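Q: Convert this sequence to C-alpha cells.
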Amino acid sequence: INAEYGLLNFAQTKNKMFGSDILPYTPIDQIPDIVQSLKQTFKTGKTRSESFRRHQLHRLLDLLNDNSQEIHTATKKDLGKPAFESDLGEILGIRNDISRALDDLSCWMAPKNEGKGFAMITDQVQVIYEPLGVVLIIGAWNYPIQLILQPLIGAIAAGNCAVIKPSEVSAHTAFWLTQTLPKYLDPDCYRVINGAVDETTALLQNRFDHILYTGNSTVGRIVMRAAAEHLTPVTLEMGGKSPTIVDASADIRITARRIVWGKFLNAGQTCIAPDYILVHSQVHDELIDEIRKAINDFYGPDVLNSPHYSRIVSQRQFERLKALIDKATTQESESKIVCGGESDSSQKYIAPTIIDNCSPESPLMSSEIFGPILPVLRINNIDQAISFINDREKPLAIYLFSRTSSVIERIKSETTSGALLVNDTLLHAVVQDLPFGGVGESGMGAYHGQRSFEVFSHKKAYMRRSFFLSQLDTLRFPPYSNSNLKWLFAIFERTYSSNKLTRIVREFLALFIFLTSFILNFVLKKFA
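A:
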C-alpha cells in the first residue's frame, strides 16, 4: 500500500494490539498526550480567527482536489466502490459544504441581534457564536471520507481543534487519511487517532467539548455513557430501518428505478438506504417486475462482473448478510427470493436481492439490514403502512411514492422520522439547508451546511446595557412597592395578542406613560 500511494513508510506489525499491516493503531498511552496537546493549542486562540479558519478550509478543499485518484483507490480497496460512487457519495458533498462555509463564514461568525422590548430599546442584545474547544469526530466505515470530513468542516468553521477517529474497518481509507491530513491541515490543531475497541475506549475516557459519532445505536449508547461522565454534549448519527411506502397512485417504473438506485448504491451499505418496502397490493406485481428490470438496466445480467456495483466491506459483514438471506428463505415458508440471492465469499459479493412476502417477524425485519437485501411486504391501505411504521422505532428516513396529496399529508403528519422524502430516495441528504439527523433510536442532533457550524459552536447570550433611561432602575430597586411592581408588569409583561402591532403599541404606551409620569414627578418636586 505504501508503494501504491507513494506515502511515508509506517512501522508495520501483525500484532493485533497495534493493528494490521494496513493500519497501525495509535498506541493507547499516547492518546491522552495527543488530546492534551490539542487543548493547549486551543488555549492559545490559534483557531479562533476567521483568516485561520478560511485557510484550513481552503487546504481541505486542496486535499480533495489533489487526491481524487487516491480516494478512488482507497474506497475501492475497502468497499469495491466504483469511482463514480466515490465522487458522488464521498467527494461532492464535502466540496459543496466547504464552498458553502467559505461563502458564508463571515455571516455565520457575526453576532446575531435578537429581539427586545421597548424598555431595552437602547441596549444591545445578541447571540455570539464561540468555538467549543476540542471536539471528537468518530466516523463510520460505509462512507469513510464523507463521514469524517463533512463534520470536520463544521468543526473548523466554528474555530475548534479536533480529534478524528476513522473506522478501522475501512482500513485503507483510514490509513490514507492518517498519512494525508497532516500534509494539508495544521497538525497542532487536528489529529487522527486509529484503533479498534481498546483504543476507542481509551479515547472516550478523555474529556471533549463535543462528540459527533456516526454508527450503530449499540456503540452510540457506549459513546453517550462515556460522554455523560464528563457532561459532554453529543451528536449521534445512527441508522435504523428506513421504510419505503409505495402507494397505488405512484408511477411504478420511476419508483422502481429510484428505489433500486437508493438501495443498492454502495451495495446497500448506506444508513439512509431504503430498508424495506411496504407496497400496495394493487401495484405489487408491477413493482417487482420493474425492480427486476431496473437492476438489469443498472448492472447488466452479470452483476458480479459489473463495474458499477460495490462489495461488502468485510468478511464478517458478508457472513451476517448471507445468514439473513438463508434464514429468510429456509425458515419462512412464505418468503421467497424473486431477484438475486447469489453470493461469492471470495469477493465479498452479494447480489441485489429482493425477498418477497417477508414476514414482519423475520430476522430481516428485526434490525437494520445494511446490505443489498430488500424485503417486500404488502399493504392494502395507507392506515396499515402508518401503523406498521409507528409500531417500530423511529427511522432515520421514510420514503413515500405517491401522487395523492392526502396520502402524502397523512404520512407527513402521522409519522415521525429524521427525514421524509416523497417520490425519491437519499436526495434529501444533499440539500445543504436541510438538517441531516435522526430521532429516537436513529439518532439525536443534526448537521450539514450551517448546522454543522452551529453543532460545534457555543451560543453565548450577550447584553450591553446603556446608562440611558436609568430612571427605570428605581422600579426594581428596593425599597419595593406595589405601585412599582404594577409599572414593571405594565412595561415588561408579555401578554398574548394575535395582532403583533397591538402588542408593540401596548408596550410602547406603557413605557411612554411611565417616563412621562416620571419626568412630571421630577419636575414637580424640583420646582415645588
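The mean pLDDT is 91.
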